[in-house]
Write a structure and sequence with these properties.
It is built from 13 helices and 15 strands. Its cofactor is pyridoxal 5'-phosphate.
């Protein structure tokens, strides 16, 4: 029988947040094991309910939701997004510049498909939210990763960005606040990125899904507010700030100088029309969400649940010998590092598969976020405090056993590598 193979377009597409480790966890759950998931930002699973007024608006408008909407979305929702851009200082945005989608994810794929030809390059952060890398590959483009500097609070390395620009570079992706590191970028850094894009004629893709999930009094600046000439596509959604992942309600805003981009915008319109429209019930939630009480502020302020859980997860994970972490100032994640002198990891996916099997705790390895070492992993700090204590306690015990199993081998080779300062293993 002739085998049926997947498209060659998928050869370089990878999304390890829902990859082999999740498949193993699902199998374990089917066998009756309870898994503590620290792998994905699905807020509703951890008791973060969508605001009731959003739910009520969707319910009341269900009778009006059976038909297709305008391909770009319903008027009231796009109007609310337009008003939001005005509050953020993004100038020149009209209703025609706003596209609603089935979450930001659909719009990211749409935006890359409309821009990239085979061999075109798009600059992406490393580590990144892996959907971006997958979308570029699926579009026929080449993802080129610029480094974010852990020693500088995970800020993008501007010199590395400049080095990686070629004649094939079409644009640059900026994820701010950042997933997976929880970093928030300064206005000075954002202005420098805008200047680079302006100099080289690049489109900016601004992923700002976590723009309201901010801690310690920090402020977010919309990248689109920093220029009126650089074409900027901004992505956001209800999924995180409004705890409505399953509603699949997102939006994309086109700002900056649109005249040179008429053909690209025609492509966006074509793809928007082809999918007919985003799901209509979710669209009805947008106006109420953006214009109503911002309950996310209660969760991120001092004493708020997300703030408490961030602080606890940071305290517990950095208490593990050989584990360090830049404390996140935004989003729902942190990206800890394993000291290679104590954790000589060759295959980080295998390491965290072993951790899952032994502890029933699910994490995602750093290579799943297109980071080029085997020493990092992402933690989602959404579970309740008792569950975080239990989960990270199991992780700590696993790492203690792993160090004991692997330290003798490491100790025997470390002197030859000239690394004698970190031989002591607790």
């Amino acid at each position: 029988m002739k085998t049926i193979q997947k498209s060659a377009k998928l050869a370089n597409v990878c999304y390890d947040i829902r990859g082999p480790i999740m498949d193993a966890a699902r199998q374990m759950e089917e066998e009756g094991h309870k898994i503590i998931r620290l792998n994905i930002g699905n807020l509703a699973v951890f008791g973060f309910d969508a605001p009731e007024e959003i739910q009520q608006d969707m319910i009341r408008n269900l009778p009006n939701s059976a038909g297709y909407s305008d391909s770009k979305g319903i008027f009231a929702a796009r109007k609310a997004v337009m008003h939001e851009t005005q509050k953020q200082g993004v100038k020149g945005v009209t209703l025609d510049d706003i596209y609603l989608g089935n979450g930001a994810s659909e719009l990211i794929v749409m935006a890359t498909n409309a821009l990239l030809d085979d061999g075109d390059e798009l600059l992406l952060p490393s580590p990144d939210y892996p959907l971006w890398t997958a979308a570029v590959s699926l579009s026929g483009g080449t993802p080129v990763h610029y480094m974010c500097d852990e020693s500088n609070g995970w800020m993008p390395d501007l010199d590395d960005i400049r080095r990686k620009i070629t004649p094939a570079t079409k644009g640059i992706v900026v994820i701010n606040p950042n997933n997976p590191t929880g970093a928030l970028y300064s206005d000075e850094l954002l202005q420098a990125i805008v200047a680079i894009a302006r100099e080289h004629g690049l489109v900016i893709f601004a992923d700002e899904v976590y723009d309201k999930v901010l801690y310690d009094g920090v402020k977010h600046t919309a990248l689109g507010s920093l220029s009126e000439d650089v074409l900027t596509l901004t992505f956001n959604s209800l999924s995180k700030s409004y705890r409505s992942c399953g509603y699949r309600a997102g939006w994309m805003i086109v700002s900056g100088d649109k005249k040179p981009a008429r053909d690209y915008i025609e492509g966006l319109n074509m793809l928007s029309n082809m999918r007919l429209c985003a799901n209509v019930p979710g669209q009805w939630a947008i106006q109420t969400a953006l214009g109503g009480y911002q309950s996310i502020n209660d969760l991120v302020c001092e004493g708020g649940r997300l703030r408490r859980q961030r602080d606890l997860a940071y305290e517990l994970i950095t208490a593990i010998p050989g584990v360090s972490c830049v404390k996140p100032t935004a989003a729902l994640y942190m990206f800890p590092r394993l000291d290679p002198a104590m954790y000589p990891v060759e295959d980080d996916q295998q390491l965290f598969l072993e951790l899952l099997q032994e502890t029933r705790v699910m994490l995602v390895q750093g290579s799943g976020f297109n980071y080029p070492d085997n020493q990092h992993f992402r933690i989602v700090f959404l579970p309740h405090e008792d569950d975080l204590r239990e989960a990270i306690g199991r992780v700590a015990k696993f790492f203690e056993g792993w160090r004991k199993r692997h330290a003798p081998v490491h100790a025997s080779i470390a002197p030859a590598m000239g690394n004698t300062a970190s031989l002591a293993v607790p």
